[in-house]
Structure formats: C-alpha cells, structure tokens
Amino acid sequence: MISHHVLFWLKADTTEEQKAAFRKSLQTLENIEVIKNFHVGTPAPIERAVVDTTYTFSLILFFENLAAHDVYQVHPLHKAFLDEFKIFFDKVIIYDAH
To answer: Domain tally for the chain?
Structure first.
C-alpha cells in the first residue's frame, strides 16, 4: 500500500470561487481507477502545537502499490488538474509512504 498525501497552500489572492473550482477538480481525481481510497479536506479546527493548519487543501490518496501510483502520476485527469490549477499554488508539500 502506498499513501500519497498532498498539502496545497493556495495564493493569498485566490478567490472563493477559484477555491471551489479547485476543490471540485481535486474531487474528479477520485475517478482514476488505480486509487483505492481518497479524501479531500481542509484543516480541521484542532489547536495543538504539533498540528499544522496553515494549508488550504489536503488530498490523501491510497494505491495498492508503487505501479498504481505511477499510473496516477501520468493519468490524463491528474495532468489536466495540474495544467489548470498549478497557477494557484503558492506551496505544495507531498508525503509518500509505504
């Protein structure tokens, strides 16, 4: 099992409409057949020193194996998301684990 956790910090001038479109596009990634589990979220209202709530969106995907992850990376839906929305990224951090 491979987990792929992506944290997005969107630019400060991103409008609410743009954020809604961003989230909607993230949700289309669930249609990629190699994804086993999927979650899109925003920071939970948890206040602890070890919890980072500065990001805008979180995307967590689970794949059966590394080969499935590699399929996802070149999938047309993933590429379309990046092509349309990377202009909104201020910062992105990815944590992959197995």
So the answer is: 1
